Amino acid sequence: MTRSDNIVLALSPIDEDLKLAFTVDCVIFGYDNDDLKVLTIECNMDPFMGMISLLGDFITQDEDADSAAKRILKYCTGNEDIFLEEVKSFSKPDRHPFGRVITIAFYSLVPISLTKLTDSADKHLKWVSVDEITEMAFDHKEILDNCLYQLRKSLREKPIGFELLPKKFSLKQLQTLYEVVLGIELDKRNFRRKLRSLNILIDLEERQQEVSHRPAKLYKFDEHSFEKKSSDGLKFEI
């Protein structure tokens, strides 16, 4: 193979006009009061001044995309142990007013009731119901829609819904979460039958407290059991 046949060896120094910038944008999903929300910030950049946008930043020279996304999550919540999944890149030439900027989108999941925004981030950020968002700055609505699609797909295939709930939850709370995120109504008996067949919940032998209705039994996700069953071929399908 000659040099001209090998595109890798034939690369020449990058022309200044072809240089790109890379960012990450994080769709931080939260769940609270039977509502799926996303953490937003008000854009301060023309021509999107005042519109809501996602949380994002440029990837620095000494980090990869995952590290940049985790840095953003830590800045917002002070926590590094948060579910995070890469979705896709967005690269339309005119997507950013700064010039040629390609972004890599991630989504993460947090229970709002258990998440305290850091003091440095709290006054700038706002939880907004996903159903209320019709437009966003940049191409962030497109990014949000893609991440929501991926969340719904993954929710049926992996036990990631537990990331949005308190550690202790009722079966009704779990079913409501699935119905809200997926935007569908589930049959109660079929849903619980499926959960029993998976056998990945621990009955805590506790009941809800300080509720206006009959207190329901509380459960927690048995992550250790699921990992073992998964390695033995168990498929999580809801």
Automatic annotation (TrEMBL):
Q: Pfam families in the record, alphabetically?
A: WHD_NrtR
Q: Which InterPro entries match?
A: NUDIX_hydrolase-like_dom_sf, WH-like_DNA-bd_sf, WH_DNA-bd_sf, WHD_NrtR
Tell me where in this chain the NrtR DNA-binding winged helix domain is found.
161-221
Q: Which domain of life is it from?
A: Bacteria
- What protein name applies here? DNA mismatch repair protein MutT
What is the scientific name of the source organism?
A: Portibacter lacus
